[in-house]
Predict the structure.
Amino acid sequence: MTVKSKLREIVGPDNFSDDPEVLDKYSKDFSLVPAGVPNYVVKPKTVEEVQKIIQLANKNRLPVVPTSSMVHFNGAAIPKQGGIIADLTRMNRILEIDEFNRRVRMEVGVTWEKAARELAKKGFRLMMPLAPHPMRSAVIDHLEREVITNTVYDYGEPLQSMEVVWPTGEIFRTGSASVAGYPDSPSKGANPSGPGLDFYRLLQGAQGTMGIVTWANLKIEYMTTVDRVLFAPVDDLDYTIDFLHRILKLRIGQECLLLDNTDLAALVSENWPDDFEELRATLPPWTLILVISGMARRPEEKLKYEENMLKDIIKNEFSEIQLDNNLPGFPGMGRKLLPLLRQPWPKKTPYWKNRYLGGCQSIFFITRPGMAPQFTDMMEEVAAQYGYPVDDIGGYIQPIEHNRACQMQFDIFYDPDSEVDVELVRSLYRDAISVLASQGALFTRPYGELADLVYESATGYATALRRVKKVFDPNNIMNPGTLCY
Amino acid sequence: MAISKEAYKVLEAIVGDEYISSDPVVCEGYRSGPGGYEAGLGYERVMTKVPGCVILPLTTEEVQKIVKVCNRYKVPYVPYSTGWYGPRSHCHVDDELLIDLKRMDDFEIDEKHLYAVVGSGVIYSQLQEEAMKRGCYIIVGGGGSQCSAIANMLGDGWSPLSYRIGLPHRRILGTELVLPDGELVKMGSLALQDDPFWGDGLGPDLRGLLRGFTGLRGCLGIVTKMAIKLLPFQPEKLEPTGISPHTSLQLPVNRVKWINFTMPSKESMKKAMFEMARAEIGAGATKVPIFWRAIAKASCKEEYWDIWSKESEETIKDFHLLRVLLVGFGSEEQMEYEERVLNDIITEIGGEARRTRPSDESWFKNADSAGMWLMCGGYVSVDYVIETLEHALPHGENYAELKKKFTPPLMPDYGDPGWFQSFELGHQGYSEFLVYWDPDENTDGVDQFYLETSKENIRKRFYTSLLGPHQPLYLTGPAYGPNYHKWMLAVKDEFDPNFLSHPPVPLAHDEFVERAEWMRPMKDWKSPKLP
Amino acid sequence: MLKGKVSLDVTNLDNFEYDMSKCIKCKGCYWVDHIYMPGVNFSTRCPSATRYIFDSYGAYGKMRIGLAMLEGRMEYSDELLKTLYACTLCGACDVGCKRNLDLEIELSLEALRIKAVKDGKGPMPAHKKVAKKITEKHNRFGSPHQNRNKWLTKDIKVAAKADVLYFVGCSAAYTNPEIARATAKILNAAGTPFMLMPDEWCCGNMLYSVGMIDEARELARRNLEAVRKSGAKTLLVSCAEGYRTWKVDYPKMLDISTDDLGFKVVHLTELVDELIKQEALKLTKPVDMRLTYHDSCSLSRLSDPWTPWKGERGKWGMVSPGLERRRGTGGIYQQPRDILNAIPGVELVEMIRMKENAFCCGAGRGTQEAFPDFAAWAAEQRLFEAKTVGAEAIVATCPWCKDNFARVARQNGEDLKIYDISELILASIEG
């Protein structure tokens, strides 16, 4: 039997393809990562099918590239060395919503849109990054450590235990899902760690190189009862960041983020392109957005004490911050923004990153919040060298856990149909990441060519990673050519 | 017993003659003896040895060199921060080198970015005080504030203060790990820069090698430096008062307050924790087992037993005490709000507030130091689990039953051996139960009970922290994962092919069962010949 | 003895088998009480373990070594003797352990030294030299015995008979006459008549402390009889080491309780504090100084009164009859502070490690004699701590502390002033 026939047998002929048109779709995504064509695409439905696919791949030393989303921005699911695309979008069941323990267990094919919708029915929400694409996998976005907009929970990451098929073909459950017979057990899978080693850490940020995760448990939160969206126009980023250092340690608010005029305009504009241009031109350089909320009990009282805290601090320490229910000159901004912060991007609306020029290359990294203004300047300098209009760079600063760190993101918009634009942005990107990295930008999620940049500087780490990889994937079949493998 | 002369000479050249010794008196001082954990049990008698040599490095570079020398001369070694964990942190084989890390006590703190960087010699109470001086706090793990912060962050690391944050894994930031072959891996932001503020890996996160719910006891390398996340606290001082042994922290009750509530049932406590989590209030919530109260009241061991012996299943079964911590992190107004909400909840459920001392003896600065050993001179946490509250309650009840079969030699607990808490604002629940025994009587039953808990967990499908090196790996391995042991041993083999880093861990408990004649009959699982 | 008959008799190491075998290495004996932990600096209170670093030098190591000695598993060596004797027996370990576990660490350490002497291996050569001086000249310096009262000046009134007997001690008599004079003048100023011993001999502090219990006991009997014969109701001392020796070690050696001595043992600070509160003594002259107070170990954590005990140990390690353990809670902590605060012009700043957490000066109980470098090192640590809190002076209540601090301050060219509390009290009386 050939590989093809075996694959067809495993998933069924309807879930197999080697049609060039189909393969072509998987060979590229919204990123600038060069195209890479797979040999086959399969769409398994069960973990047993996944297991058989991997076993077959091992036997034949064929690469396997897992993908769970229909939309990709970072190139992680583009095959570098051909092989089999394991498209897990058919594994899209929400397996449990555990209300008592605030947990959802769902397969990797569950999209943000589906997850948000189903959870909302029960009064829950999933912590989200900023306006995620509705067709992306919620589990995978968390596995890949997308940074969430909510800063108030001390425990940070929502990911708990999961099921994985190792590159050697064994099915394995991590954390407290590892008990025999799970989920038919007193253990609910709420503990991500163990058994024996912290396997979940090895799977995070792995871009599918350490195995195929099939489902995961994630923490969910109650929906808020009452919200107030507060805005402050920002001229002085340093000053505002100091303000955030002050208030976020008090555990105020739910979502807190800074958006520059371009990114904010891209998010909230309704009538394109007029609204966008006008907003971009008239919005302040940066806007601080802080959502304060009441929860299950005495919600108005909670809002009141948080407002009082903010008032006192602004009055006594940060008198230049103008935090208000609305952004001056932009009535209704709160009403527009809150759903964008609490829901994935609406399915029927072109994605906010693609609306402007069609393409968007994001550069994102972790840094100390106080470095954000410098990095902004650096980014603008690099852009200027390429004649790239600074106004076309979107900026987004996401404070993390009491503002102890932040994710800085630059969104470089471009026309993907223009070869000139593409090449320009590719070069600009390459230069920018190099300059930013040399000044301390921490690229903890090294997609595409970032991997070379990062691992060449972190050789000790890369060596250790390769040694671990050798244990789990001795034949290097899982998404080879990715990261440092 | 000593290590080879050649190896000794080379090691001496690394640290200087003042910081190395194989003198029998010095080495005897490092005998395991009883420990904080598993005091006086069979494991200690059967598995531990006095070191052949003790060395005290100062820097990561020295540790690397030492480990490389050990690899060259095939000298087994064990890393040792305080020795507090008891037998399991001590030498297990002959002619072993004990690497005492206490000199590595560097300390830096960045309160703006909420982390502190420590060496292995820094203990929790030092770190807590430095944090509190700057408006922050840490979770002092239940092992106590005398624990090395690094060792406890790797090994266990939670307490009732984990109500908001749960696992210590989330608090491990940039870290340096000397691998068993002496190579250095820097994790998190340290991999790329001289700044440990960030913990997540570059791509896959190698912090996965540091622990696995609970720790690896140094069998997969030596952590020499770690940045630990701090949590924002409130601005008022917790004032130390009293003369030993009656020392405590006076709480600024407008900002920090413990409140004890009598509750109608165990279920009602679980409900209260659930409601608190739903309302997102509080900074700590734990059931108080009655023997904690006896410890708090007693001024000595004899008084403890006098109080305890008057209890019975009858008196215990209707005693349900919930202890809640409120902290006005942001303001007094916030604290008042939380107290109103808490009272709403308790009133609805039928609980009642009790008079509570405005002081903290245990959790912020002390933890477990205060009297947990006073009663018997030894104890062990036979099981402790972070899972959910729904796991915690049946877990505790199940063990109450099992424990009866081993009482005596265990201390009678009248059907209430442990406690449970809420973690991560209700996303997780915690259960733990301790057992006490007289270390000067036959303790075989305690060793057997310890292993029996492992089997019971497997039978009943409970999760447990006592995996990896704690229990026989070939018993628990097939039951969890399944076959997590296969991966552990494969990773161990990759990084420590000479099996020099704290041998025979992670197979130490397997070895113990083979060697101890009172344990052998319990072996009903398969294992290959142990190395 | 793990179970069965047990007593607090330090001449039999067997009595401490339980204690030595139950040390769990919590290092409460090493670290400042965690409630009071000041941070990463000044965080320890065991000078031996802090200086010598290996675990064998902390009580956790010594308990294991002691058990090995009891069980015949440990041979004597220079290293063993150093481990036993490079230690001021300051009691920090004992108090620390009793925060958690109530093990008799101090008594175990004393018992180990007694065993070493009994086995013919201890004490250190330097101790033997001093012991010889005590035997021959009745003082630890080997100075002429007849010069013992030379400190007396004409302006000091000594009663032929009084309720209060001032036991001067070797240091105040020979090397620190300023303390003896100040004490005597304070008593005069307060209108408290006092007498002296007709023939004062060394209290035997060092002898007992290094394990020479037979010699110490003989001296104790002699001294005790002398005091009883005098009819004194109160034995007043101005030396913390002497205070502990009389109040605790004498009863211990003689198997009686402190109450059974037949007189109260009182330190000058206890008396002066009481006199001030009764307004029988007024401190009126200003002493303008920013100073810090050093809690001398023997006045503070080691000074709880002694009651002999014997009984049985049974299940769970419980003893009967009940035993009220000496945990340092009743030490003289507050009185010296109240006195200093009563002196006009004094600004009292506390050391970072204070009261039962104080870091020993390093001199006491045989350490100065046998390990002068270690004693100097410990003093240096404490002087540095005093400077860190911005003090211009250190005040102690013991000539051993004062001497050691002063010697090191001089050697290092420090401008920190060193006083005994008696000097400041007197300065505030007389001006």
